[in-house]
Amino acid sequence: MSADTLPTGDRMRELLSMRAPAHPASSLSSIVTLAWRAMLKIKHVPFQLFDVTITPIMFTLLFTYIFGGAIAGSPGEYIQYLLPGIVVQTIVFITVYTGVGLNTDIQKGLYDRFRSLPIWQPSPLLGMLLGDVFRYAMATSLIIGLGLILGFRPAGGVLGVLAAVGLVLVFAFAMSWLWIIIGMLVRTPESVMTTSFVFLMPLTFASNIFVGLDTMPGWLQTLVGNNPVTFLADAARKLMHGEPAGPEVVRVLIATAIVFGVAAPIAMRLYRKER
Amino acid sequence: MTNAIETVGLAKSFGGTRALAGVDLAIREGSVYGLLGPNGAGKTTTIRILTTLIRPTGGSATVLGHDVVREAKQVRRKVSLTGQYASVDEDLTGHENLVLVGRLLGLSWKTSKQRAEQLLEAFGLLDAGGRQVRTYSGGMRRRVDIAASLVVVPEVLFLDEPTTGLDPRSRNQVWELVRQIAAQGTTVLLTTQYLEEADRLAERMAVIDHGRVIAEGTSRDLKSSIGTNSLRVRLGSADARPRALELVTSIVGEGVLPGQEPLEITARVESQTQAARVLVALGEASIEIAQFAVGDPSLDEVFLALTGKPADEPKAEAKS
């Protein structure tokens, strides 16, 4: 738009003749559009995805080959136990990026634009989450693929694995709302990261992702036994290995409902609140 | 004449801080209106209330007849906002950003894409359209941001400091664009710290300080309201400036404006006679004068007269 190329006269009139359509985008259409935006971000910044899957890949390799023999007799035995847990850990960690992404958007003023548009106000959040669930699914496939190469053999077959992944995604969707809250409360994307890791480290390590409860001291067993991540790892493990998982799945769904029921309304309140 | 924007006693407090303390505005449909003031004066707060991003704590505001609180959705359908910082997604390409906005405004995928290309071409961004916005220069970002506000041409366009941080060339381009947009019937409300910008673009303007309108009118109104003339002396050499400043100050008192270029002294004078006295005093002190002029005050001088401080004085207060 150097002054000489800025259109003038009729061309400018034509350019400035586009009026608003009779109806702005519907709720569904705006959510889909904003999910499309989230997908584009995966396409343009794929690094974010690898960034969070590299740690679980390292953990899988380390634990399987270094501790596997000691913990479960052999690496091949151990990976059957470990891999469903690693899937859980990966996804639980990635959920933080929802908060990081939201915080970045807010700082950049992008949410001001969204909020000044005539769209259903929650759609930017829901669209972002929808895109994130897709991201979680991609990370999950990566980890399971690696597991299969290393000798992971889920007895539950494709259906069992899909059921487990579906459950993990539902839980991750609920959990993302926690990071949305943090994403709106803190000042920088970096502090979303650090704040959430304070919760995530104990949440994932004080669980039965790596080892069973039996060798832990009694008090810790109580703690770890009631960690929702433990519920999720249990359920994922049983579903993937084709064992009956009814009670575990129900426990996960209850935990999911509680997390969602508490976090989502708070997040929406904060979102509507002005900044 | 109908007004596109009307505010009555608009007030806003953030916690204990009062950002707006009763702002009354009446902005005619189809005009370019300037909100002028230093950082923290309440310009951005006013715009954020008018674009429904925040709610007033007192008073009321309507945009095209719609109350900004009770009829926020109707307001959002008719306005666009380009904020102080480029509110576009840096990870996405320029083209994708425009398509995104088109879709959210209810255009079909096909129309959104066509519109994106049309705007990119018009704004000289066709080649850059496929690149991520993070690779753009400041001027390009601002252009894509303004383009995003024009995907559907709004009835009221809000521009919050549209040229802050732009080089003079990009600034001229934005000015030209604002004129063209207004010529097509869109009402434009822009905030600025640059008095020159308001002077050039806005038919009327309000000067805001400490959350209040302290002056309102055309730039001519504002200039004549302070009832003084502007004196401009250009010195033959910069060495003489301290001595010349001293002399001028001794005659005009508080009216000397700081922060000018090394060879120039600008001051408010009450009368032609006072200006003549300055000329005589400089002559007697054998200070070489390259240029000596008395004229209408610039808006900078208006601002100094109204607020007691120059417009570009940085303030410690947080931006509101």
Widest β-sheet, arrangement of strands of chain B? 6-7-8-3-9-10
What class do helices, strands and sheet pairing of chain B give?
alpha/beta
Q: Which strand-content bin applies to the residues of chain B?
A: 25-35%
Residue windows where pLDDT falls under 50 for at least 5 positions of chain A? none
What is the number of E strands of chain A?
0
Helix content of chain B: 25-40%
Q: What series of H and E elements makes up the topology of chain A?
A: HHHHHHHHHHHH
Whole-number mean pLDDT of chain B: 84
The helix tally of chain B amounts to: 11
Q: What's the CATH topology label of the largest domain in chain B? A: Rossmann fold
Strand content of chain A: under 5%
Largest interface: A-B, 44 and 56 residues
Explain the overall architecture.
The complex is a heterodimer of chains A (275) and B (320). By secondary structure, chain A is mainly alpha-helical. Chain A has one domain. Chain A is built from twelve helices and no strands. Helices cover 36% and strands 27% of the residues of chain B. Chain B is α/β, with parallel strands linked by helices and 320 residues long. The longest helix of chain B is centred in the middle third of the chain and has 16 residues, at 168-183. In chain B, helix 3 runs parallel beside helix 5 (138-149) and helix 9 runs antiparallel to helix 10 (272-284). The two termini of chain B are 32 Å apart. In chain B, the strands form three sheets. In chain B, strands 6-7-8-3-9-10 form a six-stranded mixed beta sheet, with helices on both faces. Chains A and B meet through helix 1, helix 2 and helix 6 of A and helix 2, strand 6, helix 3, helix 4 and helix 6 of B.
